[in-house]
Amino acid sequence: MVNVCGLVTAKQEPVPLKSIEVELEVRDHVATVVSTLLYENKEDKPIEAVFVFPLPGDAAVCHFSATIGQTQIVAEVKEKQQAREEYDDALSSGQQAFLLEESEQSPDIFTLSVGSLPPGESASIRLEYVTELAVQADDGLRFCLPAVLNPRCVSLAFQSSHSNITRDVTSVPASLVPYSLSFSARVSSPRPVTKVESSCSLEPLQYLDTERTQASVKLAAGHRFDRDVELLIHYKDAHRPTAVAEAGQASAKPGTLMADPAVMLSLYPEFPESVMSSVASRGEFVLLMDRSGSMGSPMTNSKRHQTRISSARDTLLLLLKSLPMGCHFNIYSFGSGYEHVFPQSVEYSEKTLEEALRRVEAMDADLGGTEILQPLKHILSQPCIPSQPRQLFVFTDGQVANTKEVMSLVRKNSGSHRCFSFGIGEGASSALINGLAKEGGGHAQFITGTDRMQPKVMQSLRFALQPTVVDISITWDLPEGVSVTVLSPPITALFQGQRSLIYAQLSGEVGAALKPQCLRFSLKPAEDSGSTVHRLAARTRIRSLETEGQQGGGVKEKVVELSVQSGVSSSFTAFVAVNKGSGEPVRGPLVRRDVPTPDLACDEEEHATPQQFCRDPLLQLVSLQKASGCWLPDPALAASLGKTSEETEKTKPPSANRELWATILALIWLHGVKVDAKEEWELLAMKAVSWLRAQNGNNNSHNNIITGPEPLFF
């Protein structure tokens, strides 16, 4: 047996990564993240350590440096092939080198290569990125530090063009990951911070000022890498629009984005209740469900919880029952291939609903991999139904190897549909989930930890049924001699719960302040206001240019130029650093070591067999509702209400027919017993009330049963 020294994987292979330290700085709606990774080579030969890891899909990497002993080497952004050649040349000559590059298939996957680390040597890698924080249903802002690349959800392998080696992700059980994580966060905003929540254990929140506009929090010791590190940050007056201005860099080339002031506008409107109460009665609803093998995993890292596919089936039941009469719908499911319930979308009726529910009940996580592109192509190639706007709901727990191709397809068809996406479980690709919603003009939701899928999906259905605000325009009232270049794509639609960030570059003779208007901000911010807004503005412009590049037009040179100027990563560039200071080449054969990522499925397999779950009484009641919105009087309904048929019959007024009374009893039960889950059943209850009113007509006795005099269910 060979004795192995130092950190090892489950296969007894040496691992050079010792620890990860993350510092989060939140500034209102955006964040700067600084990660420090400590490598140590305890082998007797030089190594190349390769670490494949995820970042948020909309993140912009803006700094990469390495410290070896007392020497710090700051990486430069260069055209990707040039950076790879410099890295390879350095390794060939025995020099220490570092390479950080974005995957060409998905913008949320990065590869960090640490080359020619001599025996006994340590290297500290500092990685900095900026990102926007997503708004959640309760107005909180979500930050997520992905814990896994999630190899169980997709067989991820990418071809490295500079080494001709197919790099597969190494994974071990989360409990055996041989490196530690420390995490701290500092939050500041013009508005008070009301609370910070997490699915992970946190130390108590510390306020840093009397106004509570600044706070700090830390991850409790002992994090096991069994889940993403997620923070939910809540501010007072969340819907108030804000503007953050940032001074340009004195050292930047005049006239460029980094030299001029930049501004970020945050729009998060709250619409009047009269607007929100109007619900559309038409539409084509296409539901696309992931049935890959990983959907058989528990919702959390425990076999004691419901599986993802089981929760998805329950969610589809609730969603289908809540659709309005008069709409059209269809259900697709995918894995390595795809299936559909109907050859094309059909009108919503009792017959089509029953067939759809029968097929949904039989769905399992048995379709193999995660190939979403082909079903999307099929769905979006179908002709639209006149006066039935298409709403696409996508459910997946994985990631795909062709994210950018998927985004391009959704973007190309954005004029004919809206896309609402749901990332299920730890490790779902943020680039895929956020990208589908962003390019499809919809809304993204993530279901992690102990989150329930149903309320988040129903919130998105309410968005889909509500009217959107269109024809949005922004007018800039600027002083004479000052011009503005908007860097963000135009806002085509906005609906309740959607936040939009707009980045702009200010040029000309910038004065002290903007003329009075609805939203006022300084045009001459402090010199030390940082670079977060500039970098996110650069990222926004780079993503737009990359999109144009996919459509032709030769914009690679523009992307490379802006990426180099701003120091922000792109698909055409990479960070490279070479230590040329020692002069002594590293001797000996170079050994490659892949740093393992945590595989949650491995830990899950070590636990008990999945448990069987009894159906929630709410879902049992929902399953009995008819497409029209009514309930029929039968023993199953009485049992779901916790009564016998005789007991429900005794309470019926003589003037009420049996279907009407059964429906009223169901509504009374919902409002009396399940009021805490109102967001889940509110839409189907509205459909039931509409049915009741349609049955009553001018029958005053029936109207009294529905509306009073006692408030039975309102």
From TrEMBL:
<dbReference type="Pfam" id="PF13768">
    <property type="entry name" value="VWA_3"/>
</dbReference>
<protein>
    <recommendedName>
        <fullName>von Willebrand factor A domain-containing protein 5A-like</fullName>
    </recommendedName>
</protein>
<feature type="domain" description="VIT">
    <location>
        <begin position="1"/>
        <end position="131"/>
    </location>
</feature>
<dbReference type="InterPro" id="IPR002035">
    <property type="entry name" value="VWF_A"/>
</dbReference>
<dbReference type="Pfam" id="PF08487">
    <property type="entry name" value="VIT"/>
</dbReference>
<dbReference type="InterPro" id="IPR036465">
    <property type="entry name" value="vWFA_dom_sf"/>
</dbReference>
<dbReference type="InterPro" id="IPR013694">
    <property type="entry name" value="VIT"/>
</dbReference>
<feature type="domain" description="VWFA">
    <location>
        <begin position="284"/>
        <end position="461"/>
    </location>
</feature>
